[in-house]
From TrEMBL:
Keywords: Membrane, Transmembrane, Transmembrane helix. It comes from Falsiruegeria mediterranea M17. Residues 134-264 form the EamA domain. It is found in: Membrane. The chain crosses the membrane at residues 23-43, 55-74, 80-99, 106-124, 130-152, 164-185, 191-210, 217-239, 245-263. This is EamA domain-containing protein. GO terms for cellular component: membrane.
Length: 269
């Protein structure tokens, strides 16, 4: 979750500073992740599978997430974007698992509800704030993509090889989508460096670690624990950048952590 939060911070810092446009950031990000992971797999003498239903789903879902996430923030406030993203991720994962015969328990649903309430407490837009519909639609697509990417990862046999193959499959899909959708290009050495750091470390290695952990988590728990990502990003800003810690942030963080604990544990008899 710390890697995911760092990823979000790097993306926003690079794009908000004008160092790189969102489309170019997404392309460099997935390219850096693919190169890094493929090299690690080759050094380990591993094998990668590119042509299967799971790989096409994983690579396609990853591309949908990267494109939607990067472009949504052109018109969407960061807090509203995070709220839409992780709300849709939860709904997607809960809906799919319920339809496939493994619905979340009442305890998991309650924990998810408490955690999402805490996140909403922190990120809910101020009165009178307008939400751009195109940005909301892009972030919704990103949430669906990440939800499916997470669900596919629960069946991954080799986390590193599977993540590397997903990035390779996602690269041409992401490039094609960005070329069609985006017509603004801004590149600088600083923006490219931040995108490479995001792709190689917080995306590539972070997603490989996520795939390694996923088989040991219930789908409902995997969906709920991700609600901590925006809270970690906000707390990191307070600790590293000297931003003020508000009462709302502290209360929301406690609710999110409490909800995650409730969803992740079983009651003692």
């Amino acid at each position: 979750m710390v890697a995911f939060a760092s990823n979000s911070i790097l993306n926003r810092f690079a794009v908000d500073s004008g160092s790189i446009d969102p489309g170019s950031f997404a392309i460099v990000r997935v390219l850096a992740g693919a190169v890094t992971l493929v090299l690690l797999v080759l050094l380990r003498r591993g094998q990668m599978e590119f042509f299967s239903g799971r790989r096409l789903t994983g690579g396609g879902a990853l591309s949908l997430y990267l494109v939607g996430f990067s472009l949504a923030y052109l018109t969407l406030d960061a807090g509203v974007g995070a709220l839409i993203l992780f709300g849709v991720v939860q709904m997607t994962m809960f809906a799919v698992t319920a339809l496939t015969g493994t619905p979340p328990t009442a305890r998991q649903l309650t924990g998810a509800g408490v955690a999402f309430a805490g996140l909403s407490w922190v990120l809910w837009p101020s009165e009178g704030a307008l939400v751009d519909l195109s940005g909301a639609a892009l972030m919704t697509a990103a949430g669906v993509g990440w939800g499916f990417y997470t669900l596919v990862g629960r069946q991954e046999q080799d986390a590193l090889s599977g993540t590397a193959a997903n990035f390779v499959v996602a690269l041409p899909l992401t490039l094609a989508c960005i070329l069609v959708i985006s017509d603004v290009w801004t590149l600088s050495a600083k923006g490219i460096a931040l995108a490479i750091l995001s792709g190689a470390v917080t995306s590539g290695l972070g997603y490989a670690l996520w795939y390694r952990v996923l088989p040991h988590l219930a789908a409902a728990v995997a969906g709920t624990v991700q609600l901590s990502v925006p809270i970690i990003a906000l707390l990191s800003g307070a600790l590293l950048l000297g931003e003020a810690l508000s009462f709302d942030l502290l209360l929301g963080a406690m609710l999110v952590l409490g909800g995650i604990a409730l969803a992740s544990t079983k009651p003692k008899r």
